[in-house]
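This is your field. Please look over both lines of this record.
***
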Amino acid sequence: MSVEPPSSGRPTGPPSGPLSGPSQPPPGGGPPSEPTGGGGGEGPEPRRPWWGSVPRVAIIATAVVAAVIIAVVLSRPDSGGTGASDGGTSTSQGEIFLQPAADTGPDPFTESTAEQSSASPVSPSPTELAPQNTVQGVQGGAPGLYGGTRNVASCDVEKQITYFEGAPDKQRAFASVVRVETSDVPAYLRSLTPVQLRMDTRVTNHGYKDGAATSYQAVLQTGTAVLVDDRGVPRVRCACGNPLSPPVAQQTAPKTTGEEWPGYDGAKVVMVTPAPEPVEVFVMCEPDGQWFERHKGDTGKKDRKTEKPDKPSPSVSVTTPTSPTDSTTSTGPPTTEPPSSETETKTETSPDSPSEPPSSESPPPPGSDTGSGTGSGTSSGTGGGTTDQAPAS
């Protein structure tokens, strides 16, 4: 009896040798179709390909999703830093933007509400070169830290409120930075006190772009009009309406960008630390050397003359910027801490001699010494601790 192959030409069992190549999925991406038709006893079911295993597909899908999430987080401009997008004047991680007193700057929240600057732009000389990764800190309630003109507000708070009333999206973004309800922004602004800086001051500046608040590290020039809270900390820059918060430490040695003003020295930049208790009255200095008091939240209508303080220069401490709790983009303190500027590596030629000594009619600038003594405070640059360096009496 002769043996003839089946008319269909299909084998009746598994192949006797190895397969010619790995199993490939059909172009449609689905599993191979089941054979059709009859025939004699078929061989065992072929081995299921790896992509047909449900557990393996789930594991691979999870890995792909995780990789996409990591890529998004690492590529965000605010991941681990305080970058801001501002169409050409942005600062990336490790950069500090220099902002002159009258300059609006990038991404303003509103038009300027600042009055003409009247504070003399004189930067004090530090009593001792600050250790690397630290800046000089001054408490917000220190007499002489802020200046201005008696009975004249450096900022028009009501105009600021009017601007926000006409731009609800900006008001909402502003509220998210200062952490108040949107409807409470007017009351918040009225609770602040208009003053002018008497020292170049490091802050985190928050701009407005594409419907949201941005943030970048900045140094505000002496004479800048700001609104301060009841602890003396700058909270609004009046030339642009931007909210401010304490400076954030950089993970690398920062570089300055922007226009330097005459007399700028990174070693003389300070940061304002909150006063230990609420400040009821700010003791301020006029350009002509006269002194006056301004109550918190007042716009100058209740200003009154006062005597020159026994210590007109506030005590200076060495401190370290940390990630503030009110920053909208920072998720935690960086692992390293920055110097206030690249210029801090320079050697001071005369620590106790200010670059521009005040005249006999005007008081010494904040943080400068009137005697020959030098402070002895130092800091290791960790933990944000401070050591006061009291000026000579």
User: Anything to note?
Assistant: The CA atoms of residues 131 and 380 lie 7 Å apart.
